[in-house]
Amino acid sequence: MQVYLPIAEMPVNVLLMLGLGGAVGFLSGMFGVGGGFLMTPLLIFAGIPSAVAVATGANPLIASSITGTIAQARRKNLDTKLGLYLLGGGAVGAFWGVLIIRYLRQIGQVDLFVSLLYVVFMGAVGSIMLVESLRALRKVRRGQPAAKRTGRHGWMHGLPFKTRFPASKLYISAIPPVVAGVLVGVMSGVMGVGGGFILVPILIYLLHVPTNVAVGTSLFQIIFVSAITTVFQAAMNQTVDIALALLLMLGGAFGAQIGAAAGQKLRAEELRLLLALLVLAVGLRLGVDLVLPGEIFSVRSAGF
Questions:
Q1: Kind and range of the H or E element at 11?
Q2: Domain range spanning residue 199?
Q3: InterPro entries, from UniProt (predicted)?
Q4: How far apart are CA 59 and CA 192, in angstroms?
Q5: How many angstroms separate the CA atoms of 224 and 210, rounded?
Q6: Residue 297: inside a domain, yes or no?
Q7: DSSP state of 155
Q8: Cys-Cys with 58: which of 205, 226, 259, 295 at CB 3.0–4.6 Å?
Q9: pTM for the structure as a whole
Q10: How far apart, in whole angstroms, are the C-alpha atoms of residue 187 and residue 117?
């Protein structure tokens, strides 16, 4: 069964799109990463124009993140106050990111820029997470406790505007969460992601938020940043395909619940290891497609 996408100007398989949404929703619930880092490349691999994939890829994150957040909140893995600070920065960053995409469309460089950005970010983040998670797993197997993060803030003690985040057991400056939110917002606008694959490592490794709380809080901010990004993309770039978004959202809403339940059965170190491998795998696939002859990423006209 196929449906025609008016914005992308092409037919797509309904079951395939529902399956993609379900897979991304599963990742959202398990890792708290939204799954957009996987959704946008998959849509591009399926033939969806990059500009439409970036703009529409943020939509299913809303549905899957809502259901994932509810599941994590029930397990008390949500720091609402921290999420609001992240959201404030994310709204500003999303606006800047959409402006960047608008300029890239005008000069016809969307495909190349988005692909290169994915390869660089996912290669760097995945490598860092892989090294750290393997180190933590070795300590656990030797009977040593994994590094305790809560209560250690380092350089953040010297920053002003300190506030308490009770759910995360932190007393830090509000500046790092806001800056992290801006970064995630820009990436949401440029890459069509919720930014969880960047935000979760920032929360864990820089702000020292407990892993389970980092997952739930990441999902919380993804809901609103993705919604804001979608509005900006629709108003400024007219690249949001509603029909495609609905298919992806339906699959994502169911997948997130299953992923949240599966994530509770794994240790924090195991979750980080799996996420690192997944991030590296997607980045590697995009890198291979960029360098192989006849790669699908090409410089297109200013329209798409």
A1: strand 10-13
A2: 2-291
A3: TM_pro_TauE-like (IPR002781), TSUP/Inactive_protease-like (IPR051598)
A4: 9
A5: 22
A6: no
A7: G
A8: 226
A9: 0.67
A10: 9
Average pLDDT, the chain: 75
Q: Number of folded domains in the chain?
A: 1
Residues 170 and 153 sit within 8 Å (Cβ to Cβ): yes
The CA–CA distances, whole Å, from 71 to 29, 38, 212, 242, 301 equal 8, 22, 12, 26, 43
Asked whether residue 65 is assigned to any structural domain, the reply reads yes
Give Cα 123 to chain centroid, integer Å.
Answer: 15
Q: CB atoms < 10 A from the CB of 150, how many?
A: 12
Q: Which residue has the higher pLDDT, 285 or 304?
A: 285
**Chain-centroid distance, C-alpha 254:** 18
| HSE-CB for 79 with a 13 A CA cutoff | 25
Gyration radius of the chain's alpha carbons: 19
- pLDDT tens digits along 25-54: 777 666 655 566 677 777 777 777 777 877
Name the CA dihedral angle for 25, 30, 35, 41, rounded to a multiple of 10 degrees: -100
Residue 158, in any domain of the structure: yes
Contact 187/97 with Cβ under 8 angstroms?
Answer: yes
Distance of CA 250 to CAs 42, 74, 219, 246, Å? 17, 22, 17, 6
Domain assignment present for 209: yes
The one-letter amino acid at 41? P
8 Å CB contact between 139 and 146: yes
